Amino acid sequence: MAISYDRIALIGLGLIAGSMALALKRAGYKGEITGYARTPETRAVAREIGLVDRVCDSAAEAVEDADLVVLCVPVGAMGAVAAEIAPALKSGATVSDVGSVKAAVVDAVAPHLPENIHFVPTHPMAGTEHSGPRAGFAELFDNRWCLIVPAAGSDADAVAAIEAMWQAMGANTEVMEVEHHDLLCAIVSHIPHLIAYTMVGVADDFSRVSEQEVIKFSAAGFRDFTRIAASDPTMWRDVFLNNKEATLEILGRFTEELFALQRAIRTGDGEQLFDYFTHTRAIRRGIIEAGQDTDAPDFGRAKVK
Ligand code: NAP
User: Fold this and answer.
1) For residue range 103-147, what is the model confidence (pLDDT) as tens digits?
2) Which CATH architecture describes the domain 7-176?
3) Which end of the chain is more exposed for a tag (fewer CB within 10 A), N or C?
4) Which residue has the least CA distance to atom 42 on ligand 1?
5) C-alpha distances in angstroms, 8 versus 194, 230, 264, 287?
């Protein structure tokens, strides 16, 4: 199924919206893409680099006559943006979003949408630590998952149309329930980010003592943490504030495991450590076999000139 929308509006013009615009163009999308961002600075950059066909000066203007409107703003801003665009939406249009959390977004957005609008939330599981209108690239979604998380009562045709669009942009799609999405993402994305933020914070404390040795001698594991911990602070603040229940649940389990490993180290229980690390190594192999990463050695040198 090809992309069935004649006009697509992207609200928020950062990494994800920019990548969507570029991926749509790469897919040969012939319709019009309009865009809006709240600050004149972002709109000016989007115009300068020709990110979308038409950058509008209000969200209402951008969504006018659009068959699909995608909210690409931080999770905590979704409700206010939905309220702003609601009166200007075309009857029968689909509203979607790309937020990293789903239950809170459904709760914030759905009450604002008129009855004649289809609401189909999505979550592309792809990103980088960069943000803003210059950060996007057409390949971001290639072979990544885009989870389609229909709100209660979503129309089947509207769901199929949005799945087809994400597939045309290079993504694999899977339909998932809201609560399941939020728990899964707490495990595979949200808590790993929190751990990276924490480890970098600990190292920062330490480096005050060791006078920058942490940076000078940073090993691959720590460098990976710093990359993740460089992610956008607004986005990640909103993720934790809006996926509170699931992240606290997984954080509780993480803490229990950490204490168990701490005890194994203290008591010299090498067998427990070895078994644990053998098991986790098998999970890495599973990710590579599923095509979600490559097993090429990565010493972080590729980026070093
Ligand atoms: P981004 O590059 O920082 O862009 C965010 C956009 O939202 C900007 O255009 C910004 O406008 C606008 N915005 C920020 N605060 C706003 C507010 N309070 N009201 C209205 N607009 C506001 O962010 P992104 O990485 O594209 O993320 C967008 C969404 O995608 C988020 O919901 C995030 O959870 C989700 N997501 C992100 C990733 C990732 O790895 N980055 C992956 C999957 C999903 P100005 O520039 O004018 O301030």
Assistant:
1) 999 999 999 999 999 999 999 999 998 999 999 999 999 999 999
2) 3-Layer(aba) Sandwich (3.40)
3) C
4) 127
5) 34, 31, 55, 34
